[in-house]
Each structure stands twice: as C-alpha cells, then as structure tokens.
Amino acid sequence: MNKTLTVIRLLFFFLCIAGAYLLWYADGEEKGESLTPYIVVGVLLGALTVLVDVLLKGFSLRGLTAITFGLGMGVLISFLISTSPLLENGDAEVLYLVRLSLFVVCMYLGSVIALRGRDDFNLVIPYMRFVPQKVDSAIVVVDTSALIDGRIIGICQSRFLIAELVVPRFVLDELQNIADSSDPSRQARGRKGLDVLNELRGIPHIHFTIHESEVGRGQQVDAKLIFVAETLKAKLLTTDYNLARLAEFQGVDWLNITALAKALNPEVDIGEALRVTLVKVGRESGQAVGYLGDGSMVVVNDAAHIIGQEAKVEVTSVLPSAGGKMVFARLLL
Questions:
Q1: Mapped to the 3 state alphabet, what secondary structure does 158-207 carry?
Q2: Are 69 and 114 contacting, i.e. CB atoms less than 8 angstroms apart?
C-alpha cells in the first residue's frame, strides 16, 4: 500500500475523532452529555469513509465521469417524463411513488449504460478522453514485448528516445502473471520485464507513467494497446511485427525496436577487412564460421585449421538472408 496514502487516511481518521471531541466540548459538555457517543460517531464516520475509499480503490476518473454523465442523463429523462401530461391526473401519493420510481430507475439505467460504454466516450471535454492539451515531449505506449526485450533501456539512456513512456495497467498485470508462471523460462522473462520497468523509473530525462486504463476485459491485449495509443494520440513501442502492422492499419504510429536494430546494423562492403573469432566448422570442406557483433554469420574459406582463434579476413561477397546477411570471406596473412 502507498505509505503516503496510509498516512493521509490515518490523519483523516484522527481528525474525525478530534472533530467529535470538539463538538462535544462546544455543545455537549455544557449539557452534561457523555463524551462516549460523540467519540463513537467520530470513529464510525472516519472508519466508514476510509472503507468507502478502499472499496473505490480500482475506480478510475474515467469510470467516475461515466457515472456522473449517466446520472445526469437519468435525472433529465425522469424529469421530462414526470412533468409530461401522462402523470398529471391521479392520486397524489401514487403519482409521487411513480415519479420516485422513475427517478431511481432512470438514474440506475443511465449510470449502468454510461459505465459500460465509458471507453467509447468521444466528447469535447478534454479529460474525458485523457488527451493532454499541451505536451512537451512525445507520448509512447510500451507493450509487454518491448519490456521483456530490454533494449529499451539502452535506447532511453542514450537519449535516442526522449518521451513520456506510458505503460498500461493491463501490461503490468500481464508481466506479473508471466513472472508468477510455473514455467522457469516464462518466469525469467516476466521478472526481466519487471526489472526493466524499475530501471526506466530511474532514468532522469524519461517521464514514466502507469496508465490506469479500463479497457474491456474481453478484448485481447493487442486491441487494448492500440485503443490506449489511439486515445492518448501516442506512438506504440513494440518488438511484435504483427502488432505493429495491426496498429499501422488502424492509423496508430509505431516504433519497432527490432526494426531499429536491423537498421543500425553496420554495412559490410566487399574488400573490407574484418577481425572475427572462428567458432565452428562450415558446411564445405576447410570452411570455418564466425559471427559479427550484430549476429551476422561469417564463412571463411580455408580456415578450419584455426577454429577457436581470432582471424583477420577480407570480405569476398555478402548474401542477404532471412536472418540478416551472410558474409563470405578469405583469410588474410
């Protein structure tokens, strides 16, 4: 529990008790009344208020806005019906009960319908869509794959990305579920994602926010991410190529860390000299294989006798492949 919130609740609780005592001191003492009932009322009032606060813990501003809007519409509709000619004639007590029933039913239906459709509000009031009117930096919504990947830390620390990073609550919940998995590999990935979250909080020039979004529970995570990014007019940061394509189809800008990494891979030119550590035998006789820093495979002819050593080689050809590129080279003496 948030320590600051706990302190505020305790202060409010004791203020209720102090208020009850002051009320007794100002009025009850002169009348000879007992202090106990006043203190009991103060304790009950404080406890009840804190209890309501705890029960409303998961209730967001979006939900409150929806209910307020629904209640207002319910009151308006019930007023229009109750003042119509339909309810002009009849027994006064019966009409009173009918009007009261209409009032309660319309308020209930209005609030429930508005609450169910809270994610579809598209009114002009800015806070109802949670869209900042003045933003100094770009807003980027981060998905689970980008957090588990971990390269976002280096991107942010190098100031390549200076933005307000937004992590929706459902992404945090998904990370927690992965970290709690019984599968060791999934558990490790989930914990890595949570560690990345903590590191992001410590980067000074990055404004990090947990977005308490209440997107429909039945929707898939990808649909929720696109909805949040669209609502905040933000870009979506991911390593999932399919999610990026889906976001693009729906008009949401995206940033793909994997695509960025491929774009930053150094180009290798024919005739260029490289130093590479040879780690295994190639397919053809006499060939040895090594790897560049970006993972590209380097096949060196007539080098099988020096596997396990670092060799200086010259690039003879470069072949594009599904994994990036394959470099063929020869030994340099």
A1: CCCCCEEEEEEHHHHHHHHHHHCCCCHHHHHHHHHHHHHHHHHHCCCCCE
A2: yes
Please name the residue that has the structure tokens 């930096």.
137
Strands 163-168 vs 138-142: parallel, antiparallel or unpaired: parallel
DSSP string covering 261-301, please? Answer: HHHTSPP--TT-EEEEEEEEE-SSTT-EEEE-TTS-EEEEE
**Per-residue pLDDT at 120 exceeds 60:** no
**How many CB atoms are located within 10 Å of the residue 130 CB?**
17
pLDDT in the model for residue 277 = 92
207: three-class secondary structure by DSSP: strand
- What Cα–Cα distance (Å) separates residue 189 from each residue in 35, 158, 174, 175? 59, 24, 11, 9
Q: How many helical (H) and strand (E) elements, i.e. helices and strands, does the chain have?
A: 11, 10
Query: Contact at 8 Å (CB) between 115 and 67?
Result: yes
60 pLDDT tier (thresholds 50, 70, 90): low
Place of tokens 């019966």: 94
pTM of the entire predicted model: 0.51
Cα–Cα distance measured from residue 19 to residue 26, given in angstroms and rounded to the nearest whole number: 10
Residue among 292, 165, 144 nearest 234 (CA): 165
Q: How far apart are CA 201 and CA 190, in angstroms?
A: 17
Model pLDDT for residues 156-195, shown as the tens digit of each residue: 888 888 888 899 888 888 899 999 988 888 899 999 999 9
More confident residue, 86 or 315: 315
The two most distant CA atoms of the chain are separated, in Å, by 111
